[in-house]
Write a structure and sequence with these properties.
15 strands; six-stranded antiparallel β-barrel; alpha+beta; about 240 residues; 2 domains; 4 helices
Amino acid sequence: MTEALYHQDSYIQTFEATVTEVRDDGVVLDRTAFYPGGGGQPNDVGTLSAGGQTWQVTKVGRKDGAVVHQLEGGAPAVGDVVTGVIDWERRHNLMRTHTALHVLCGVIWRDYGAQVTGGDMQPLAARMDFEFEHMTATFAEEVEELVNREVAEGRPIGTRILPRDEAMSIPDLIRTKINLLPEGITEVRVVEIEGLDLQADGGTHLANTRDVGRIRIVGHESKGRINKRLRIQIED
């Protein structure tokens, strides 16, 4: 089992680890700060280095219960101690984007009572779908003002791990229309934006909303009778 450093501290940029397995599709480490993707957030990329050699980490993902790091140009050997370096600009921009989506989700739930029906993100750009039947012409402008007000509040963001039963007893913890939490999960990682949002989530986030920057609603469209999409961009 790979120790998930990205769950302990989203700001870790460099780490040391030991190679525990070499596969045709990459290497497995005893610990990693590379986020393997999930929940709409893409995986991290970066480098692994050992013995004067450096390999590009081009993709990271979960496979057969392991976190596999796909490399270019060969691979270290089992037992090697490697130094991992995250592409920090990309990761930080994804953290800004993911946090912005939580702010958006928190505002929509609090002020409009709408559940999430889908979402996706890339660095500094994302979309989120909500269960709305109607969307007024001024809706996007209203939401943009509300979410940026919450960003400016400088709300602290924290995480904690809860037993599944305790987590599932929290009202409205699952904001998605369909509960995507696998039945076999016995512990749930919860992300909280103080005073705004509390959700089960396994991704990486900022420590404070003010670090998001400015959120712009750049598009809104209907994806069905009760499914509406908002597109956002993050600016400095």
